[in-house]
Amino acid sequence: MESLFTSIIIGYFLYEVVRSLKSVFFAVSEKIKERRKNTGIPFTDNEIQEAFENKIFGDFKLSNAVVFFKNQNVVPKEGFRIFTNDETAESGIKQVLISVSAEKIFDIFDELLKTLGDTFHFVVDDFRSENGEYSGNYGYNKDAFIVRSLLIDYEDLVVNNGFVAFAAFNPELQTEVHLLREKVISVVTKDIYRFVSVLIDNEIDEKSDLGFVWDGNYLLFSQQAEEELFDPLISALNVDEVIVFPENKEK
Fold first, then answer.
1. What is the tens place of the pLDDT at every residue in 175-224?
2. Which bin fits 46, alpha (ψ -120 to 50), beta or left (φ > 0)?
3. Rg of the chain in Å (alpha carbons)
4. pTM, full prediction
5. What range does the domain containing 17 cover?
6. Residue 138 and residue 197: Cα distance in Å, rounded?
7. Less crowded by CB within 10 Å, the N or C end of the chain?
8. Number of domains observed in the structure of the chain
């Protein structure tokens, strides 16, 4: 992640810390990226419509951002899994991936954001471009309460748009909290059990066999009403810079 602070010293420090966190996140997520199936899958309109109308799996409901095609090997359900790999094991940094029913996504995400402290840095990723580009809308040292309050006002966009992702970072805690496009929550941190306690308090259990939508076939969706909320959200958040990247990234 690059940054353009007025103060070169502060800017360089933030750049190095957050860049290292991002590299850790992508390293931990490598296995997840390898399992993705959401590329070049031919679905008929009828199949998409059927999948869109069938979003409930037992007591688990998918967000409108995701259309999941039934799979005998993958059944969406609530829970979390803790991941690590050889590159991050020595540093003690781990990742927890959290799957919760649509009606709980925002509240759990907000609870996890609270653990980042009074201020944090954030990025709102915009994957709506049709030419393969994506943009990151960055805010630095923002008041966490204000940001969280604004997200509440735009909850429908945050939870139901499959082309928008949000992440918050606290370099001092070496921690980042993501709401991915698939509306799976990711936490990357050294103090993983601090966040796990939040999940346990909300009766979300660890499941070693937990699968995610990218383990099966799925598509991402958004609706026009949500699209119209994006620019007002970015304006309200008072972002510090926007960086346009040439290719879509996978998280």
1. 999 999 999 999 999 888 899 999 999 999 999 889 998 988 888 888 77
2. alpha
3. 18
4. 0.81
5. 8-245
6. 29
7. C
8. 1
